[in-house]
Amino acid sequence: MGWIIAIIVGGVAGWLASLVMNRDASMGILWNIIVGIIGALLGNAVLAPLLGFGGSIQTFDLGAFIIAVLGAIILLAIVNLIQRGRVR
Known about the structure:
Elements: H1 2-20, H2 29-51, H3 62-84
Helix pairs in contact: 1-2, 1-3, 2-3
């Protein structure tokens, strides 16, 4: 059951990050899920120790969701730098 929650939360986090980074038109639901889950891992590795909260997205928690969205935004900013040489 935890993986299903991780996929749903990752998809929503990736979708919100793609809206913030203005990449929603170029990404489908699969990429939103992938970006959200990788963003959650990135956020928990980098941002959670700095901010003092976070956790697994396998159990829904507002702090973990915020970290997942922030991590996905950072991941999309890195992708934008690599693809276009600038952050939108």
